[in-house]
Design goal:
Strand content: under 5%
Distance between the termini: 62 Å
CATH superfamily of the largest domain: MFS general substrate transporter like domains
Structural class: mainly alpha
Radius of gyration: 40 Å
Number of strands: 0
Largest sheet: none
CATH architecture of the largest domain: Up-down Bundle
CATH topology of the largest domain: Growth Hormone, Chain: A
CATH class of the largest domain: Mainly Alpha
Number of helices: 26
Shape: elongated
Amino acid sequence: MLIPSYAAVKEEFGIPESLIAIPDAFFVLISAFFALIWGYYTDRVNRTKLIFAGAFSWTIGMLLTGFSLNLPMLILSRMLSGAGLGCVLPVGYSIISDTIPPDERSGWFGLLAILSSISNGVGQGLSSFIGPIYSWRFPFFLLSGISIVVVFLLFFIKLPYRGASEKELMDLSDLNLEYSYRISKDDLREILGKKTNQYLIIQGFFSIIPGTIFVFFMTSMFSLYYFNQLPQEIRLQTATIFAGMVGIGYILGNIILSYIGDVLFRRNKKNRVRLATVCMILTVPICLLMLFFITPVDVSNLNITYPDPISTIDIGTYLFQTIGEIFSVYPNYVLFLVFALIGSILSSGPVANRNAVMIDINYPEHKGTAASFFNLSEQVGKGLTLLISYILIILLGSIINMMIFAVFFWIPAAILWFLASRSVKEDMENKSRTLKERQQITLIDYIFELDIQMDRAIQKIQDSKYYILTDKDKFLELMNQGIKILNKCEKECKDRSITNIEQKAIKLRSKAKNVKREVKKIYRELKKDDIEPEIHRQHIEDLRQIRLRIGEWEKSTFGTIQTYYEDAYLKILEARLLRNTDLIKSLLKIYQAIEIYHRVKHLLNERIDHIVNIEELSEEDSFVYEKEQDLFKKSRNALWATVKLKDDIEDVLTQLKNEGIKKKDLEKTAELTSEYHLNLSQIILDTFGQNKKTKENLDKTLNKIEKIFEEYDKIYELKKLNVF
């Protein structure tokens, strides 16, 4: 938008001609830099929030541009607009790629390129036609107002799921499941490591240079050097129209070549890249011919008499008369138009297909970032071109010489497109294979998540039994929460035809509802003032029986882990009981307890790792997570205490061995003590304590066993294990 107003801005701020392109150069470079940041977070967070943030930055920047008082303020406001504009490409491409099937993407991206060109044309048109009348600032105020309306409309748009249009992920879309993979910093290396990405990103730098010079300098070239004899009132408008003739072909090319790209893609996955390569090669000679037919217009040769000045009402009349006379008096401009149309049509071939190609080879969570890398390459090329354009004009002698020089940058771009045609199929196949695997993993993860929800419901129902006698409200709250979760699981399973979990949810919900109904009836009876003591006792006993009945139902995974934890402690109790009759069996029970504690610790570690990987925990998930961590710590401490108990008992056995009592002797002694209910220590002392010193040593060693278990009891503590 600022380009047609360069002359007005230069005059108002007193800017040297060498600095006039600086605001737009910074606009382009900042846009490219922020596109990379926007692109990364597009693939990582909620895209709606990013759209609002980008639109806000763009709108504020446009307003500040209109209010700029000097060059530094103009540069800063353009940078702010550029930061917002950088959001459009990665977010827009990511959303389009998730909406449009692969074999239609060229057409839609071609349409997007057309809309982009039209918007650029409208922006330049506003500055060219309205700017001279209402001031160069007015178009910026107008577009900022339009931006505010667009931001408001965004509130009513629902964005598609990530990866929704990928053929390999269609089963997820059918089940209304979201592709859950998100980009990480490690993925950046993978994106840049793909050969096709490398070729397209690098070619973007070269291919943008000619287009940048044509867009930014074609109007100025016509106005300053070829149409400079035309009256000032219509000079800029005439130059803009002739420069816009190039844009017409660009729009037609995006329509035609994007459609051809989709048709060819259905036949062979490489054809989009091949089409872009051919178009890029042919663009070079055609555009050189276009520039060859541009000649200066001598106003005296035109059959028009211009009034001085031309009134605002007559500007349109004289403008179209002038254009007609130029084509009549200078037929070479007809050839200029023909080659401009053909050249711009061909130059749009890579543009119409490049974004579709990049999306075809990148994962859904990489698309925004990959597009940003490509955009960065293009915008760096564009920004550097603008920064050194004044130097190039001086070195090459004129704008048209700079344009001729720029056309040759399409040659390395064509070579890179050719190289991309050799790698694109392999990259697409790798992506397809990985997405199929990820779809299976996502489906499995979803089933696992349903199992977790079922587990949560079971846990709540099981925990409700702890409160059935002491806290009526807590019992009903937990029971209602469990039933609510089961209802949700049943609905989701029914919608997605997951029959086994659905039947399980229905069965458990029915049992829970019956129990809740039964308990509520008992609670109502207990509230009566005239209830007899015997009936009161009977109702309390009924509640105890219901509690036992709930305990016999299926336990949750966490409940099962709790049971393991309790079982391990029971093994220690058995070991304590056996210490006076069979020390070997007592040690065996301790070994079993250690094995169970290891298993409990491992199972809890898996559950905790799963929860840690969830980005946002609900309040309930956080509560369960704390409980699981608490049990994990207790299991770890219990394991440590039990291992110490084992080591201490083994030390006792070693000391007994040193006193001449072997394992076989203990086993034989244990047979007697178990059969006749005798004390193991006394039998050992009577059998092996023949002399006083040996007897004292044995007595001292055997007394350690009791102290070892007493010390274990101080370390270890078994707490109530309900979660909710």
